[in-house]
Specification:
two-stranded antiparallel ribbon, mainly alpha, single chain, globular
Length: 481
């Protein structure tokens, strides 16, 4: 019998422990960078907000530029060695920046300091584009069964949400009492802990199956090059109606969440009448809802299946976001925000097994490399579009329907909720109760074949494995993962 402290399996527990420590370190580091730039490097400068936003832009740029190509190399390389290498690289980068930060702030021009910060963030996020799909694939090798894979994804998300709650409050005291250097060294140490944990994981060596660039997945005598393999991955993705449908759900969901993240500060202060000093409770509410949703997701998937969980979660989260947009009080708003986050996180967890069931082993890295940049791009477009609409086209918008008043902010959030609702209706028809080869699911098509003797899920489908892969959950700001 497995020890009570074991999560699914011993190897998954080790992998989870490394992720937990690293996630807290990432949140401490990202919060520390924000504080350092805002209160030291750009203190009292008119361009301070732009300097802080540059940290987020640097991370987003790495996801969009490096992410798509990274999947090709992850599919080629040994996944465990890839994760170990990225942890060494990221730990070294943070340690170097920490060493340089011991210099007085006036020892270098502000532009040089910012270049060092942005460069470090860019490289950290670039390395993370290799780490994330490699971890995704390793989890796929460690965990079997629909419910266990959903549990694995739920545990991963709950850990990230917990880090979101724990990291920032820990970062501020470290920064203001010990200094920026020690907060950075804390993150460097977290990468070391993650390295040791990953090194202890036992993963069976993968069979080498180089791709011939034709998109058929057949082995070739030698590799055909990065570009042909990248194109083959895109062709594989595009030919799978199932994968395309999952991507559509993720992008639409991310549009809704992106609009909420951008405008929520204005909604809570203007529509809910909440003091800006209480805005921290909003993040806490999202974190609590995320933890509850992530921990419940495994049982929900086991109960009604991953596909039904996906479209039901979309419908629920869309309806709750519309209801949230109509709130005018603090208690009601916070309560609905928690409730909205629960099905949204459950959705994120349920989609991970579906994604894995549709991705054959040799294409997993490239499948993740398509999902992450596309959802990142959707979040960036949603943030820019919602901010532009609220500040220009709908700035003075006021309307009344059947005695219900609408303003600019609540209208945009309501429309975002309706978009998620529509995607839920589409998902209900696009995700049938049983998988077929045409869908790209593991019934025997190109997107993944059911292996003999492999356990099946509630609807008789081959069991996928779980990991969060950029599906529409509230994004961690400034994270390097």
């Amino acid at each position: 019998m497995a020890p009570r402290l074991t999560l699914i399996s011993r190897d998954f527990t080790r992998l989870w422990f490394g992720q937990a420590v690293s996630s807290v370190g990432d949140m401490v580091f990202s919060t520390t960078l924000m504080l350092w730039v805002a209160t030291v490097l750009a203190k009292d400068e008119s361009w301070a907000p732009a300097a802080v936003s540059g940290v987020l832009v640097a991370g987003g740029t790495a996801v969009l530029v490096v992410g798509p190509i990274a999947g090709v190399f992850v599919d080629r390389w040994d996944k465990r060695r890839t994760m170990l290498g990225t942890e060494v690289l990221r730990g070294g980068l943070v340690a170097v920046l920490a060493a340089v930060s011991f210099l007085p702030a006036d020892a270098l021009p502000a532009g040089v300091w910012l270049a060092l910060v942005y460069g470090t963030v860019l490289l950290l996020h670039a390395a993370a584009r290799f780490f994330a799909p490699a971890r995704f694939t390793i989890i796929a090798d460690l965990v079997t069964g629909d419910a266990d894979r959903a549990r694995a994804a739920g545990i991963t998300q709950a850990t990230s949400q917990t880090a979101l709650i724990v990291g920032p409050p820990l970062a501020a005291p470290l920064f203001f009492t010990l200094g920026v250097q020690w907060a950075m060294l804390f993150n460097a140490l977290s990468y070391l802990v993650s390295y040791v944990a990953i090194r202890s994981v036992r993963v069976a060596p993968a069979e080498k199956a180089p791709v011939d660039g034709s998109g058929t997945g057949k082995a070739a005598g030698r590799r055909s090059g990065v570009l042909p393999e990248f194109v083959a991955g895109l062709r594989f993705f595009g030919h799978s109606k199932f994968l395309v449908a999952l991507l559509v759900f993720a992008v639409i969901g991310q549009f809704g969440v992106g609009a909420l993240n951008t405008l929520n500060i204005f909604f809570t202060t203007e529509n809910l009448g909440m003091s800006a000093r209480l805005f921290g409770y909003v993040g806490m509410a999202i974190g609590v809802g995320g933890i509850v949703g992530a921990l419940c997701a495994g049982r929900v998937v086991q109960w009604i299946g991953a596909r039904r969980t996906t479209w039901v979660s979309l419908l629920l989260s869309g309806a709750l976001l519309v209801a949230y947009s109509r709130q005018t009080g603090f208690i009601g708003g916070i309560t609905l925000l928690v409730l909205f986050t629960i099905p949204l996180t459950t959705l994120n967890t349920a989609m991970a097994p579906l994604l894995l069931s549709a991705a054959s082993t040799e294409y997993r890295g490239r499948v993740v490399a398509v999902f992450q940049p596309m959802t990142q791009l959707a979040a960036m477009v949603a943030a820019a579009l919602s901010g532009w609409l609220a500040g220009t086209v709908l700035r003075n918008f006021e309307a009344s329907v059947a005695g219900v008043r609408f303003g600019p902010i609540d209208t945009i959030i309501a429309v975002a909720g309706l978009c998620i609702l529509l995607s839920g209706l589409y998902a209900r028809s696009a995700l049938p109760g049983t998988e077929t080869a045409e869908d790209g699911a593991p019934a025997g098509g190109q997107a993944g074949e059911e292996k003999a003797g492999e356990p099946t899920g509630p609807a008789g489908k081959a069991v996928p494995k779980a990991a969060a892969v950029g599906t529409p959950a509230p994004p961690r700001r400034g994270s390097t993962e």
